[in-house]
Write a structure and sequence with these properties.
Chain lengths: 298, 197
């Protein structure tokens, strides 16, 4: 028998759970009943929160980590992974979420930031983190701080997919650009991206991020979800898009199928029928700048 | 003929990359008609409840179960192991499996993600050097029936790798740790099965 030591919370273990969620849909839920609907519909994980982004947006005020009782009730209801959000830089909320045994923490711009300078030092935790990004430099800074998964931010709570599109195109485009650079140019690229040279050089050689990349913020229909998958996303987060729609169960089912068959228009067409009303959207261009959540985080 | 990787959800691209590195021709499988083109199948890691739901919704579950019983070599990791188990403990409401392995598997047997881990594991059929095994919200084989055989156990005695004729299953993920020997072992089963036909 070999002498064995087990490692908990290693990068491989943290990033590995995100690998297992690829090709899947992570759904925002605000209570155990919604969590049950999400699991039955084929969600790969649920995001437990008190208010979906559309309500945070309309109700205003400071948005914080959810009540531990709410998170407990959702963990008790489902057997798929449960994620929960902490405010940017609020490492005590993250400590609490880890103590509650959530499976992933989202350090999220959807909540009100707790620190306008620093993000959480995510290496200090056993639980993995997902963070939002609007471009490659932001993604690499989060990975440097220990994020084990990245989601493009989009504009949460709008049902407008245009920001999500902009962010995934930006990140994919910047990764592709790095692959074409010579070594001396990579030093400058690292400086411009405000990210460590080693990480930049790794991406230039592999042609992809070292962690899983999901898309979030504005996905409301099966077609939106398939669009993001065709753009090269590893999977999608759907926030307000499901439970703010006319028939959450049918829409959740349909989005799951559209993500698996993202490149088959006949399947996407068939699952898009009879879903009732999509969430009422807000055009991102109609939002005044202070109300754009994607501009939180840096 | 090529080797398929079930591509409904999960880390199917990692499996495809390992198999291609070992020289296999790989097809990603999502539809029943695609099963005719393959001489072996890998069911990847992912969420077993999602794979089960999609496999049934798109008519893949029954033909796959028939193919397994007709001798198609299949290797399942984590969620894939659950899909191959005759019986699943702690599944979601209504969860079904393709079955074939005479085992009972407990889903998510270690607890939340903070209890996921990596460790070295002795797997005698793969040789003396240990396998580096990554367990992510992993299942364990709680009961090994008379037709199945345990290939590896944790120090506490819990079974985490099994085989039975054409079938191979592991609780952990060789596809993300650079460990190729399970896939080689599986490709040998594929080659043997083709020879027999």
């Amino acid at each position: 028998m070999t002498e064995t030591t087990s490692a908990f919370g290693s990068s491989r273990v943290k990033r590995g759970l995100a690998d297992m969620m690829k090709g899947g849909v992570i759904m925002d839920v605000v209570n155990a009943e919604q969590a049950r609907i999400a699991e039955d519909a084929g969600a790969v994980a649920v995001m437990a929160l008190e208010r979906v982004p559309a309500d945070i947006r309309s109700q205003g005020g400071v948005a914080r980590m959810s009540d531990p009782d709410l998170i407990d009730s959702i963990i008790a209801e489902v057997s798929i992974p449960v994620m929960a959000k902490a405010r940017i830089g609020h490492f005590v909320e993250a400590q609490i979420l880890q103590a509650l045994n959530v499976d992933y923490i989202d350090e999220s711009e959807v909540l009100s930031p707790a620190d306008y300078v620093n993000h959480i030092d995510k290496w200090n935790f056993t639980v993995p983190f997902v963070c939002g990004a609007t471009n490659l430099g932001e993604a690499l800074r989060r990975i440097t701080e220990g994020a084990a998964m990245i989601r493009s931010k989009g504009e949460a709570g709008t049902g407008d997919v245009s920001e999500a599109m902009k962010h995934i195109r930006t990140i994919k485009g910047e990764v592709a650009r790095l692959s074409a650079l010579s070594k001396d140019e990579l030093y400058v690229a690292a400086k411009e991206l405000q990210a460590p040279y080693e990480l930049v050089a790794e991406i230039a050689s592999t042609g992809k991020l070292p962690v899983v990349l999901f898309v979030a913020g504005g996905v409301a229909t099966p077609a939106d979800a398939a669009l993001m998958m065709q753009m090269g996303a590893d999977g999608v987060f759907v926030g307000s898009g499901i439970f703010k729609s006319g028939n959450p169960q049918a829409r959740a089912n349909a989005i799951v199928k559209a993500v698996t068959f993202y490149d088959d228009p006949s399947v996407i067409a068939s699952v898009s029928r009879g879903l009732g009303e999509a969430m009422v959207g807000i055009n991102v261009s109609d939002l005044a700048a202070p109300h754009r959540l994607s501009e939180r985080g840096w | 003929m090529s080797v398929g990787v079930l591509a409904l959800q999960g880390d199917f691209r990692e499996h495809a990359a390992v198999l291609r590195n070992l020289g296999a021709e790989v097809e990603l499988i999502r539809r029943p008609e695609e099963l005719a083109r393959i001489s072996g199948l890998v069911i990847p890691g992912g969420e077993s409840s999602v794979m089960d739901k999609l496999a049934r919704a798109f008519g893949l579950a029954d033909p796959l179960a028939k193919a397994v019983r007709a001798g198609l070599p299949v290797y399942g990791t984590c969620a894939g192991l659950i899909m191959l188990a005759d019986s699943v403990i702690d599944g979601i409401r209504g969860q079904q499996t393709i079955g074939g392995l005479d085992i009972a598997v407990r889903r998510n047997a270690f607890g939340s993600q903070t209890l996921s881990f990596e460790t070295d594991l002795d797997v005698p059929v793969l040789g003396a050097s240990p396998v580096h095994a990554v367990f992510i919200r992993a299942p364990v084989v709680e009961t090994v029936g008379p037709r199945a055989r345990a290939l590896a156990t944790l120090p506490d005695g819990r079974c985490v790798a099994v085989e039975q004729d054409n079938l191979l299953g592991t609780s952990f993920h060789p596809e993300i740790s650079g460990e190729y020997r399970f896939h080689e072992y599986f490709l040998q089963k594929v080659a043997d099965a083709r020879f027999r036909h």
